Amino acid sequence: MELAPPARLATAGPPEGAEWLAGLPELVAEVLARWELTPERVTAPGGRTSMLVLVGCADGGRAALKICAPWRPAALEEAALRRWDGLGAVRALRHDPAAGALLLERLHGETSLRSLPEAKATLEAVSVLRRLWVDPGAGHPFPTVAEHTAGRAAALRDGALAALDAEPLVESALAARDELLAGEPERLLLHGDFRQGAVLASDAERAPWLAVGPEPVVGERAYDLARLARDRLHDLVASPGAASITRRRVARLADSVELSAERLRGWALFRAVESAGRALSAGRRSEAEALLEFATWL
């Protein structure tokens, strides 16, 4: 079968990733052979930082082979999955850090929490997050939220959103980050990129829904909830009264885990604005504009 990178991955990487993309089919074939895996299909459209191949294993089982891009190291993802050990998240069965390869238990990739009505999806999402928020462990390899967001904050200061005339929002977002980091109350292991689409249906007896694709960081819970706060953004943009809906959503999410709504609002603001900067840099102007509109509602 053809092992070409799906279109989303092929067009999403930085310029320096072109060589890795060119050699990706050969890399995937090498890992498949070495781990005695039989490819079934490449998932599409796939993500922007990895390639996922559904596979059969030599023992008759089924799994998913994930090859992570160099700009999204597999070692950190594997370390987080190992720390969670299946509690709220998919399990890693094998790992080759040099190849960026993870062999994961098979979930139902076509069924995420986005398939549920919004209220039910939010309840399930918060339930999964509660299980993921654990102590990162002594000597852990995970960056802090401050470290993880430093480069993104610098990009905003350097004018990542200059083309959209968003300076007031950028200043507010950067001020919110500085204030939040100055008084960060927790140092827990976070998923880092948690949203409804990153929680998939599972046949595992331990849980019906499991998280995938972490971008693990250490910090406060409000940082994780901030990404969830803007879920189904396109539906939200199209809704009448979107601003009031957004503020109620933030309040409910904060209340559901007994957090400060103001801290959640601050992280939601920063994360929306910095995501807009990255979207604009990647040529996704309409996405950037939607994110900035969301930020104004906060």
Automatic annotation (TrEMBL):
<dbReference type="Pfam" id="PF04655">
    <property type="entry name" value="APH_6_hur"/>
</dbReference>
<protein>
    <submittedName>
        <fullName>Aminoglycoside phosphotransferase family protein</fullName>
    </submittedName>
</protein>
<dbReference type="InterPro" id="IPR006748">
    <property type="entry name" value="NH2Glyco/OHUrea_AB-resist_kin"/>
</dbReference>
<dbReference type="InterPro" id="IPR011009">
    <property type="entry name" value="Kinase-like_dom_sf"/>
</dbReference>
